[in-house]
Amino acid sequence: VHPNVSQGCQGGCATCSDYNGCLSCKPRLFFVLERIGMKQIGVCLSSCPSGYYGTRYPDINKCAKCKADCDTCFTRNFCTKCKSGFYLYSGKCLEKCPDGLEANNHTMECTSIVHCETSEWSPWSPCMKKGKTCGFKRGNEVRVREIVQHPSARGNPCPATTESRKCIVQRKRCQKEGKGKKSREEKRKKSNKDESKETRQESKGRAARRQNREQRENNNKMQPKKRKAPNKEQDLAPVDTAH
């Protein structure tokens, strides 16, 4: 240490020298040596830089180096982040993850292998063909299931989520129901048609009768009224045959 020690230092230093920088730090700050070429300069920081971990002592707080494969660490033997090419597992940096674990390239950690999980199969659907459930003899019915847990990179892949199988349709029964429905529909249409026809005929009849009545009234208005002839039988007095 250069003998020229100063008490009026900058940058959090409690004591310093022109040659070596900080020699001690103010309370709660960490002392760390930074290499500049062949020279080491002491600096005081509020937290330790990457690759260092902090230790507190009654007289001084220091930043010590992590292991070579650690990017950040809590102590020298417990890493919290690894350098490129290493995977973190239980505070250690490994080139290869242990058996039963897989490397997560996103977090650069060794994680448990996750296998695919699916729900139970749904009930079989009605027997269908081309979207219909009747009008044919053989069709297909299907069932499905959902993926509950997607697998990790080394996990077992998901199985099929849809199954299909051949089935036989009750063809006669399906056609009978279809015919009945069709017959009812035809009857309804025919009834509506008959009602419409009767309504039209009634309307035509009423119009014809109204036209004839109006024509008779017009004819009566145009003809002169005839004088009513006297009733001769009423004018003759009854004859008394008793005398």
Automatic annotation (TrEMBL):
Residues 116-170 form the Spondin-like TSP1 domain. SUPFAM superfamilies: Growth factor receptor domain, TSP-1 type 1 repeat. GO terms for biological process: positive regulation of non-canonical Wnt signaling pathway; Wnt signaling pathway. Residues 175-219 have a biased composition (Basic and acidic residues). Gene3D superfamilies: Hormone Receptor, Insulin-like Growth Factor Receptor 1, Chain A, domain 2, Thrombospondin type-1 (TSP1) repeat. Keywords: Disulfide bond, Glycoprotein, Heparin-binding, Repeat, Secreted, Sensory transduction, Signal, Wnt signaling pathway. InterPro entries: Furin_repeat, Growth_fac_rcpt_cys_sf, R-spondin, Rspo_Fu-CRD_dom, TSP1_rpt, TSP1_rpt_sf, TSP1_spondin_dom. GO terms for molecular function: heparin binding; signaling receptor binding. Belongs to the R-spondin family. Interacts with the extracellular domain of FZD8 and LRP6. It however does not form a ternary complex with FZD8 and LRP6. Interacts with WNT1. Binds heparin. Interacts with LGR4, LGR5 and LGR6. This is R-spondin-3. It comes from Bombycilla garrulus (Bohemian waxwing). The gene is Rspo3.
